[in-house]
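Chapter summary example.
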Amino acid sequence: MFKWRATSELPDSRRDDVLSRLVSQVDDPQRAFPRMAKDSIFMALVAELLTEIQTKQTLYRGDSTDPEWAERLGEVHLVVTSPPYFNLKTYPNRDGQLGQVSEFDEFLQKLVSVWRSCFDALVPGGRMAVVVGDVCLSRRRHGRHLVLPLHAAIQEQCRRIGFENLSPIFWHKISNQQTESQRRGSYLGKPYEPNGIIKNDVEYILLQRKPGGYRQPALEERVLSLIAKDRHDDWFRQIWVNLNGASTVDHPAPYPVALAERLIKMFSFVGDTVLDPFLGSGSTLVAATSSGRNGIGIEVEPHYIQMSCSRLAAVDAEVEVHL
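The structure predicted for these 323 residues follows.
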């Protein structure tokens, strides 16, 4: 059985009893699970039990591009992360400047060591979800519009490491870019004339898999990891349009907790361990807590470590910090 939260008003025996009754309804998972996923009452009980599971969220202050941190992790079942946005760097503002391409290449090289460490930490068959946008260089700052295909570079890096590339998800995330004439719109350039530039309103959720066989989790874990039919139909499609971005007040490039929660529930089981090597403001571990998963986060900036701890305290998470 699972370890339950000590803060709950329900006794452990009561929660064990509810779980046992849910599991007892499964005679044949292949037939029972589709029926259960359509049962709103059953799925409401599953959702309630998820919030009762005691998890552990571990934060490390460190540089995830350093291969040595991987030795401290142990085994993880899923990686959910979003690397820093390269185009948040400040470039010289001069005509014809496309940005320091050599710096972009160095940025990519640093990412390789992170993906390799994630590969080593993942269990066979484990997944990695990387939320990333391409690097858009504007004409105003760099002399011309240009897109550096960061998503494609990461996919190729992962393939060379040994990951299996899976179909990505396209997240239609409305940006705050404007046209060159300072009007909001779907393009960049002169209004109503040819050769405008289509705005970058899409982020990629790259899905990678470490080779290996399918896992055989316990029946209790499978039951509590069920996804309701309406959510399953909405989530397991390649284009996501109904998910808003997160506020950038406290962090320049956060992703919403709802996004991390989707990915965690889609690609892991209750009780699994989720890793985020670029923790930032802590969205992944907040989502892991509400999803009944353990989490490990690595973050180099002390301010974001403190912010993550505050957010986790707000959801009554058990937190362990290594500074």
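To summarize the output: Residues 89-101, 176-183 have pLDDT under 50 and may be disordered.
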